[in-house]
Amino acid sequence: MNEKPKILIADDSEINRALLKEILGDGYDYLEAEDGAAAVELMRQRTDISLLLLDLMMPGMDGFDVLRVMKYHAWLDEIPVIVISAAEDTANIERAYDLGVADYIRRPFERIMIIRRVKNILMLYAKQKRLTRLVTDQVYEKEHNSVLMISILSHVVEFRNSESGLHVLHIRTLTDLLLHQLVQKTDRYQLDESDIALISTASALHDIGKIVIPEEILNKPGRLTAEEFAIIKNHTVAGAQMLQDLGQAIARDEPLLQVAHAICRWHHERWDGNGYPDRLKGDEIPIAAQVVALADVYDALTSERCYKHAYDHDTALRMILNGECGAFNPLLLGCLRESSEQLRTELARSEWDRGFRQETHRLSEEILHREALPRENHSQLLLEQEKERTDFYAAQCGGIRFDYDLLAGSVTVYDYHAEPLQQKTVTDFAQGRGLGFLNEQDQRKLSKAISRATPEAPDVVLPVMVERDGKPHLHRMALHTIWSGAGVRRCVNVLGQLTDEQHRVEHQAELLTTTDPEEDPAHFLRRLQGIFDVVRLVDPEHRKVLALDSDGILTEKPGNCHMVWNRDTRCENCISAKAYARKTILNKIEFKDEEAYFVISKYIEVGGRGCMLELVTRLTDGRWLDMGGHRLLLDRCDGMERSAFVDPLTGAYTRRYFDKFLAGGEMHGGVAMIDVNQFKSVNDRFGHLVGDEALQTVAAAMQSCLRQTDILIRYGGDEFLLLMPQNCPDGVESVIRRVQNAVQAARVPSHPELRLSVSIGGVCNVQPLTEAIRQADARMYCNKENGEQVL
């Protein structure tokens, strides 16, 4: 049975909505929104809306605002809009059509006009969708066949070269990943999605020229002679010539062949001009060849070859970034560094088969010989007991729990909202029915969260909407990923727990938004004290904490407000003073001892006197607010103890801390990138334990030079990021020189003969923060080459 089309009616008049439903009759299902904001929220949650009937003149978000939102999210491609409005001026009609409406009907209207126009628009869009699907299927089939033929041809070369059978797939995947990272970083190369797809597909042909190279040279296990290496190098020219000849036979201007030709000929060129065959330099090398070159080097390092063992991800990354594999575009090196965890995941996926076979063999041996069954039985018993506890707690608090087995592809859902006999369902995850309680947007959000999890950070929390009793309810989804222990680690299970957060969020948001603190300030403060760790009133002008007596009069307490943070002077980033001056609400993250706190400062008036309401929440309690401070965020964030964002080796903050708390913001002041010089030689000569000790020594020396407000982050490997808020250019240069001198004077306790140094690049007052880091990174590499350490 076909479902009825769903029509969303957005009109602030209930009578108008009822009239439209009565005219259109029972052939449709209806959703109603009394203003623009409600209409947008319904379209955000639902993917089954067939048509929007929209009034233009509504309070708050009007119809034009709704159209702008739909245009921004490209919803107009899926949901046609008929405007039904009493507005008769030509300017409004023209404006509506410019924003993408399908039709415009003036009030008062005739019944037959509404019926026919709604039917016509629905039929037109249905035909367009069928035609789009037909064309898309044909294009996909053509592209699929092309890609299949390219893959077959490239794999012939690959297997002839005795490679792993995955090299071509790796190159394509890594090329796609690096290109997407590149377009987020810069628009220098003017690449769109079709360009990325074209380059990724063409990358499979990068080594097609090896088909003319003798097999005894391709598969030689030892070092090549100069003559043999010259023959190998010829594969770039040979492959390019093959594709050029093919272009003459098929179509010289075929985009795929043009891109493949550039990749074939120049994927061994290097940024500094020391590559081959044409010794191109910088952006003389086409960007397609630059990206494939970097992907090719990374995969060659991390793959087994007849002449070498595979390097692990961190070693390969360090070798490339240290210039041991030739010079690459600094922008692409930045993309490589920023994609580090995604690359690690891709490598883990490629090695999955080997690790899984090893684990399967081990388990089968244990079962056949019964050597480990007593221990395994004990472990199984503990697991079953833990499962019983989980079932019990979940049953007590209600909600939904699911267990997604990635190996079997099945998902088991326990829905404690359902009837007892219907609480458990098991289905194929690929079919999507097992997570039918999530809309498509939240399912994509779930998949993205799973792909970003790592063994070191296995837990994720995110907000989702779950429909209950015909209405969407906000839920908190907590995910825990379980990883294999054999070979390269891989995610094998995802455990999920959903709990209804609607009531809690509505109640707590009400305290900050709808409750007026001036009506009964004492009662208001008492209610907040049950939610936040610290609730206090502050006079930022005099730096005093205020007390509210029984008569509602404010008095000053002894001491200063900053004493709560163990500070002798005013906080460097006093948001209460800023919010007080603007009579608004602001927030920040503050650190005290070993804990991190989220602080909200809200301007209020008590008895006619303006003051700041400060609300402090310890982050480890998992209570969060959004970055505007206006309402409670929809999710809680568990597992955020200090150990989660402080590097245990160096004591600096982790990249994870930076990404979660700082990366998206702005910061006025200095930014410096710091790299330990010749660190690889320390590891190679003395071993990794001494290397770790050297990093600890460097970090301690740098920390000794910093202000309390400066933030040192271990950005990756032996590279550090230093943030210096509110520091002027002269001050930043002074810090850089102090850090350089301190590191040079430091000694590794176990090997005092070691002499350590760092290369530093700094910038000041560059916005946004991502651009400041990019510029500082470029200056750091330039200074490393020139031996300079200045701004």
Please tell me about this protein's structure.
Keywords: Phosphoprotein. By secondary structure, this protein is of the alpha+beta class. The protein folds into 5 domains: 6-109, Rossmann fold; 160-362, Hypothetical protein af1432 (Orthogonal Bundle); 392-506, Beta-Lactamase (2-Layer Sandwich); 515-619, Beta-Lactamase; 637-786, Reverse transcriptase/Diguanylate cyclase domain (Alpha-Beta Plaits, 2-Layer Sandwich). It has a 6-stranded antiparallel sheet. A 6-stranded antiparallel sheet has the order 14-13-12-17-16-15, sandwiched between helices. β10 and β11 form a beta hairpin. The longest helix is centred in the N-terminal third of the chain and has 50 residues, at 111-160. The termini are far apart. The model is unreliable at 350-382, 503-515 and 620-643 (pLDDT under 50).
What attributes does this structure have?
791 residues, alpha+beta, Rossmann fold, Hypothetical protein af1432, 5 domains, 6-stranded antiparallel sheet, 22 strands, 45% helix, globular
Summarize the SSE layout with pairings.
Elements: E1 6-10, H1 14-24, E2 29-33, H2 36-45, E3 49-54, H3 63-72, E4 81-85, H4 90-98, E5 103-106, H5 111-160, H6 167-185, H7 193-202, H8 215-218, H9 226-233, H10 235-249, H11 255-266, H12 287-302, H13 313-321, H14 330-338, H15 340-350, H16 352-369, H17 373-397, E6 400-405, E7 410-415, E8 424-428, H18 440-452, E9 459-468, E10 471-483, E11 491-500, H19 502-513, H20 521-529, E12 534-539, E13 544-548, E14 554-556, H21 575-582, E15 585-592, E16 595-606, E17 609-618, H22 642-645, E18 653-654, H23 655-661, E19 669-676, H24 679-686, H25 688-703, E20 711-716, E21 719-725, H26 729-745, E22 758-764, H27 769-786
Parallel strand pairs: 1-2, 1-3, 3-4, 4-5, 18-20
Antiparallel strand pairs: 6-7, 6-11, 7-8, 9-10, 10-11, 12-13, 12-17, 13-14, 15-16, 16-17, 19-21, 19-22, 20-21
Helix pairs in contact: 2-3, 6-7, 6-12, 6-14, 6-15, 7-11, 10-11, 11-12, 12-13, 24-25, 25-26
